[in-house]
Write a structure and sequence with these properties.
- The chain is an alpha/beta fold.
- The protein contains 11 helices and 15 strands.
- It folds into 2 domains: 157 residues, Medium-chain alcohol dehydrogenases, catalytic domain (Quinone Oxidoreductase, Chain A, domain 1), CATH 3.90.180; 121 residues, Rossmann fold (3-Layer(aba) Sandwich).
- Helix 11 links the parallel strand 14 and strand 15.
- Helix 4 crosses helix 5.
- This is Zinc-binding dehydrogenase.
- One of its GO terms (molecular function) is oxidoreductase activity.
- It comes from Streptomyces mimosae.
- Pfam families: ADH_N, ADH_zinc_N_2.
């Protein structure tokens, strides 16, 4: 049975590109689910680096001359209503997901989502932690698939301490892959605790030059791709998800040796289900650096832009943040 909430809600909005201060909490009309959609009461969202880039105006060729109305790709919450052509049995279920759109506006009390883009949250996982995983988890699965690395093979992850990297380390380790990471010196033990067998500091890559070659490299940073490409075994693959790596990826088509592959994730229910299975088996846990109340989303963006990440910044939309 559908339970339609109030006619207005709180949501993060901004009307111009700029610094984190442009993000405001506004009272806006409640969305209504259309055919094939569900209405989700969002308990938590999270901040991804690309959202900070969109907000700052760095993605205007793709996001448009005027900014999107809202922000936020990830969500975790409860289905409170179902539109036409959707099973009412979904109402009351805890769900999570991501829309992967530059104009996504999921940092809001209520959102409408196409039913195929939501999946059940793993039992026992708190919604505030669940919100940290959809975008980074799906991206990690896609990157690992593109790298085509197998059990017992060696994988180097560059930029490993952030949201995607922390998920990728855990998933690859669970699959029996021998994981090595490149991160800042402060994050070496953090990466090791997540499952990395070898850890290297960005600031001193001499040790990496002496390491055994790798079957695959996944780059999340976009710099020094030539160096990491040279550490591949014959027939190895290098995959980049960083926008800064796109130019080198195109250049690699003209160079001898392996080409740099670009990987991009899309929202897929089957991957959300796979993520849930990894969480339930204990092979994957959300890495949350800090939880912010909705009103402090600007501070969360500022923290993401600092570049010093250990996992995700989560925005708690419903309820109070635990101290």
């Amino acid at each position: 049975m559908n339970e339609m909430p109030n006619t207005t809600m709180r949501a993060v909005r901004y009307d111009r590109y700029g610094p984190p201060e442009v993000l405001k909490v506004a009272h806006v009309p409640m969305p209504k689910p259309g055919p094939g959609q569900v209405l989700v009461k969002v308990h938590a969202s999270s901040v991804n680096p690309i959202e900070a880039q969109v907000r700052a105006g760095k993605m205007r060729p793709m996001s448009g001359l005027r900014p999107p109305k809202g922000i936020g790709q990830d969500f975790a919450g409860e289905v409170v209503a179902a539109g036409p052509k959707v099973d009412d049995g979904l109402v009351g279920r805890r769900v999570w997901g991501t829309t992967f759109a530059l104009g996504a506006a999921n940092t809001a009390e209520y959102i409408t989502v196409k039913e195929p883009l939501v999946a059940p949250v793993p039992p026992g996982l708190e919604l505030v932690n669940a919100a940290a995983l959809p975008t980074v988890g799906l991206t990690a699965l896609v990157a690992l698939g593109a790298a085509n690395v197998q059990r017992g093979q060696r994988l180097l992850i560059v930029g490993a301490a952030g949201g995607i990297g922390s998920a990728l380390i855990q998933i690859a380790h669970a699959r029996g892959v021998e994981v090595a990471t490149v991160s800042s010196g402060d994050n070496l033990s953090f990466c090791s605790d997540l499952g990395a067998k070898e850890t290297y500091d960005y600031a001193s890559l001499a040790a990496l030059e002496q390491a055994d070659a790798f079957h695959a490299v996944v780059d999340l940073y976009g710099a020094n791709l030539g160096t990491y490409r040279s550490r591949l075994r014959s027939g190895g693959r290098i995959v980049t998800l960083a926008a800064k790596g796109m130019g080198y990826a195109m250049l690699s088509l003209l160079l001898p040796g392996p080409r740099v592959r670009l990987a991009r994730a899309k929202p897929r229910k089957e991957l959300l289900v796979e993520l849930a299975q990894l969480v339930e088996s204990g092979d994957l846990r959300p890495v949350v650096e800090k939880v912010y109340p909705l009103e402090e989303i600007g501070e969360a963006h500022r923290s993401v832009e600092s570049g010093h990440s250990r996992g995700k910044r989560v925005i708690q939309v419903v309820g109070d943040v635990e101290s």
